[in-house]
């Protein structure tokens, strides 16, 4: 059988997942259950002010292709002020139905939460991954381009086996990430089916379980004003 599908085809019966292959459980991404989308999260003027304050920041860290970091583009911390951050956290707690969120404290890894991430078309590509379970239970992204490429939002993925079988998408305990769960150092993009795409819209907040395989769908732009700008958040909560 030889066919190429980026997404799991609806009209074709796929072979079963090979029984000897490492796998992941599949948890279908369902709006209101394991991911949430809210438009116009802030008042338009406030979202524009957040965007310009991010772009005016003077201190940035650089990722690919400028350094050996795995992450692309450039980023700067403290993107939202505490009032704005509280508004987001209150909303997140209400939808995930938890009383308490906190940011993981790690001496090994920097948890880049409340961090503005600016990535141009030439600087990055989709990289399906899960957020390390020790550092994140829920993640959020606030998109901040007034005129984005709408297909450059966030996508969820599921494993695509060599025989084209569609596998799972979530890392369960005791594993923390895909490297542990699948016993591989990395997987090519072709090892994934795209499952769900969330469009990029200005001032849209998305929240999702960080253990579901996901990635920025694509990047765009070539200067400060046109590159894909988003603020990302990572929280821990009680299981
Ligand atoms: Fe992530």
TrEMBL record:
InterPro entries: DUF6445
Superkingdom of this protein's organism: Bacteria
Name of the protein in its database record: DUF6445 family protein
Biological source species: Pseudoalteromonas arctica
């Amino acid at each position: 059988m030889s066919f190429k599908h980026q997404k799991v085809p609806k009209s074709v019966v796929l072979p079963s997942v090979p029984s000897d292959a490492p796998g992941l459980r599949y948890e279908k991404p369902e709006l209101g259950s394991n991911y949430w989308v809210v438009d116009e999260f802030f008042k338009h003027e406030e979202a524009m002010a957040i965007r310009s304050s991010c772009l005016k920041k003077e201190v940035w860290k650089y990722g690919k292709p400028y350094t050996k970091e795995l992450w692309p583009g450039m980023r700067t911390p403290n993107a939202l002020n505490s009032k704005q951050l509280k508004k987001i956290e209150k909303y997140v707690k209400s939808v995930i139905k938890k009383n308490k969120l906190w940011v993981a404290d790690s001496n090994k890894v920097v948890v880049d939460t409340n961090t503005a991430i600016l990535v141009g078309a030439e600087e990055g590509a989709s990289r399906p991954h899960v957020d390390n379970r020790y550092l994140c239970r829920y993640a959020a992204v606030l998109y901040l381009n007034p005129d984005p490429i709408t297909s450059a939002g966030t996508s969820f993925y599921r494993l695509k086996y060599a025989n084209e079988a569609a596998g799972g998408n979530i890392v369960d305990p005791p594993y923390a990430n895909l490297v542990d769960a699948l016993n591989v150092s990395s997987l090519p993009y072709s090892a994934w089916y795209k499952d769900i795409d969330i469009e990029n819209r200005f001032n849209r907040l998305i929240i999702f379980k960080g253990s579901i395989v996901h990635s920025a769908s694509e990047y765009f732009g070539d200067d400060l004003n046109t590159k894909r700008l988003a603020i990302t958040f990572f929280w821990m909560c009680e299981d």
